[in-house]
């Protein structure tokens, strides 16, 4: 496995829409392992494939309870509102307050190609929304309520 090079705020790939994963093959599994390794090295809680230059709908998240791997994730339900601080590995040294749903329900495929549903609240809901936004070319800075310099 390998640490992948992060893409930063001014990289145009971060503004493009990702493609669905048609086949979960060895290349996708390697991508997932590399993304996990990169996320942990950078001490992030989530990473989307476009952040490492791959326009595929692949997300990894770990809010401290072990890795969650999502292929072709999409939000099927949102509830409530929560404004809180967010940052991004692709926008180092900055953070800002963003309004996100308090709770989300996301459908996705696991590495075995099985359809799954995950419900997230608080930090997990925020991470799911943030990473799924990356798959659609949206950065958290597009949704800022206020900015904070670190």
Overview in brief:
The chain is 20% helix and 34% strand. It has two helices and eight strands; from the N terminus they run H-E-E-E-E-E-E-E-H-E.
Describe what this molecule looks like in 3D:
With 150 residues, the protein is an alpha+beta fold. It has 2 helices and 8 strands; from the N terminus they run αβββββββαβ. It has one domain (12-149): Alpha-Beta Complex (Peptide Deformylase), CATH 3.90.45. The model has no long low-confidence stretch (mean pLDDT 96).
Distance between the termini: 32 Å
Query: How would you write the strand order of the largest sheet?
Result: 1-2-3-6-7
| Mean of all residue-level pLDDT scores | 96
Q: What is the count of DSSP helices, taking H or I runs of 4+ residues?
A: 2
The CATH homologous superfamily: Peptide deformylase
Based on secondary structure, the structural category is alpha+beta
- Radius of gyration (CA) equals 14 Å
The CATH class label is: Alpha Beta
Shape field:
globular
- How many DSSP E strands? 8
Provide the number of structural domains.
1
Query: In the CATH scheme, what's the topology name?
Result: Peptide Deformylase
Low-confidence stretches are none
Q: What share of residues is helical?
A: 10-25%
Described by strand count, sense and barrel closure, the largest sheet is: 5 strands, antiparallel
Strand content: 25-35%
Outline the secondary-structure elements:
Blueprint: H1 26-41, E1 46-48, E2 58-61, E3 68-79, E4 82-86, E5 94-100, E6 103-109, E7 115-121, H2 122-135, E8 144-149
Antiparallel strand pairs: 1-2, 2-3, 3-6, 4-5, 5-8, 6-7
């Amino acid at each position: 496995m390998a640490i992948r090079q992060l893409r930063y705020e001014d990289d145009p790939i971060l503004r493009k829409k990702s493609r669905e994963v048609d086949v979960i093959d060895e290349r996708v599994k390697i991508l997932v392992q590399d993304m996990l390794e990169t996320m942990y090295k950078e001490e992030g809680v989530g990473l989307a494939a476009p952040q490492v230059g791959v326009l595929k709908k692949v997300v990894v998240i770990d809010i401290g309870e072990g890795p969650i791997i999502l292929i072709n994730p999409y939000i099927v339900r949102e509830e409530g509102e929560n404004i809180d601080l967010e940052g991004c590995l692709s926008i180092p040294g900055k953070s800002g307050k963003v309004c996100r749903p308090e709770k989300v329900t996301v459908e996705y495929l696991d590495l075995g190609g099985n359809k799954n549903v995950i419900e997230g609240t608080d930090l997990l809901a925020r991470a799911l929304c943030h990473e799924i936004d990356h798959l659609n070319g949206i950065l958290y800075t597009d949704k800022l309520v206020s900015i904070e310099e670190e």
